[in-house]
Amino acid sequence: MEDTVPAQGDKMMKKGVIGSMVAAVCCFTPALVFLFAGVGLSGLIGGLDYVLFPLLFSSLGVTAYAFYLRSGNKGMSPKTIIAVLALTFSAVLIWLEFKYALRISLVAVALVAIYGFYLRPSKSQVVS
């Protein structure tokens, strides 16, 4: 039995939110640093940000696309725009040498939240 588009959106939403939360915890807390140091991989700690922040922005992109699927909107798919934004946020953050990592990440989260709010069904569209 095939999944319907809203069901796919629900699954994708869970995966995107979980991925975003895990990446955010690993980016902004020393949890992963302690884990790597505990298993003897301390030499890899310096490169974690180059993987974790693109992962965070990609997971936020999955969440944004899930909002689109759940809304049932017809028309042009936002896949390309979401991919370009995730790549742009990652590139800007790396270019700025992670100086404004928290601010840039919060802007990305806010954009996804605004997009989800924009796509929410209005009360006139909801059928009881």
Topology record:
Blueprint: H1 5-28, H2 31-38, H3 49-71, H4 79-95, H5 101-119
- Give me the secondary-structure category: mainly alpha
Count of helical regions: 5
State Rg: 17 Å
Number of domains: 1
- Estimated helix fraction: over 70%
Mean pLDDT: 87
Number of strands: 0
What string gives the helices and strands in order?
Answer: HHHHH
Strand content: under 5%
Question: Residue ranges: pLDDT <50 for 5 or more in a row?
Answer: none
Shape: elongated
Q: Please summarize the sheet with the most strands.
A: none
What gap, in angstroms, lies between the N and C termini? 26 Å
Describe the overall structure:
This protein has 128 residues and is mainly α. The chain has one domain (5-116). Helices cover 71% and strands 0% of the residues. The chain contains 5 helices and no strands. The protein has helices at residues 5-28, 31-38, 49-71, 79-95, 101-119.
Features of the shown structure:
single chain; 128 residues; mainly alpha; 5 helices; 71% helix; elongated
